[in-house]
Amino acid sequence: MLRHTSLVFFYDQMRRGGRERDWGYRHAWTLNLSVPRELCQRFDERLRFPMLDDLEWAYRVTRASGVPVIFRPEARVLHEHRYSALDVLIREVLLGHQAATLRAVNPECARIMFADRLTGRVPVSGAELLGAGAAFRVFESWCGGDGADPQSAFEACRGWRETARRFGASRCDEDFGSVRRAALELIGGSAGASAGPSLVVSRTAGARSPTTA
C-alpha cells in the first residue's frame, strides 16, 4: 500500500509526472534528497518530531532560492518504512499535533499546507471518535488480509485519518506521549501494546534532486 498509494509519500503520482516537472516543496522529503550546499538552511528545532520539519525547511529553501523540486526515479536509496495499521494511526495523530506547532513556527507555510484545517484546540466529538474507530478497525483488518485493492483501501481510510489528525491538533498543548496513548485507546481500540500486522513496504525511495533552472 505504501508503494502503490499516497498514504505516506506521493511517489505513485510522481512516477506518472514529467521528468522536469517542479513538484514543489511539499514533495521535498529528506529521506532521499540532493541539494546544493550553498542553498541549505538550518532546520527549525522547534519542530521536534520527524513530521513536517523537512517540508518547513524546504519551504524556506525554495522560497529563498527559486530552486525547483525534481523527481529522479532512477536515483534510489534503501529507506525502509514498515508501518503497521497502528503505526499509520500514530503518524496521522502526530501530523495533526505537529501542524499546530508549524502554525507557530511558520504561519505562511502552515496556511498553504492546511488552510483553515488543523488549527488546534478544536475538540473532536465522541461520535466522531467512535466513527473513526470503526473505520480504523476495517483498515486494520485489511492490513492483516490478502487480496484487497490498495487504492480502494486508501480511499476508504481518508475519513478516519482526518479525524486522527484533528484529534492530534486539538491536543497540541499536551505532551505527545499522552496524546498518542489517548488516540490508541479512543480510535485504535488498544492500549498500544501490540503493533498489529504490517503494511506492504516499499524498500526504495526515489530521489528528488532540486536543481537550478
How large, in whole angstroms, is the Cα Rg?
18 Å
Determine the strand fraction and express it as a percent band. Answer: 5-15%
Give the topology string: H per helix, E per strand: HHEHHHHHHE
Judging from the principal axes of the Cα atoms, what is the shape? globular
Distance between the termini: 34 Å
Mean pLDDT: 83
Q: How do the strands of the widest beta sheet line up side by side? A: 1-2
Assign a percent range to the helix content.
40-55%
Q: Which structural class matches the secondary elements?
A: mainly alpha
Q: How many helical elements? A: 8
Low-confidence stretches: 191-213
- Quantity of strands, as a count: 2
The profile of the biggest β sheet is: 2 strands, antiparallel
Give structural notes:
By secondary structure, the protein is mainly alpha-helical. Helices cover 45% and strands 6% of the residues. It is built from eight helices and two strands. It is globular, with a radius of gyration of 18 Å. It starts with 10 loop residues before the first helix and ends in a 5-residue tail after the last strand. The relative contact order is 0.22. The C terminus is likely disordered.
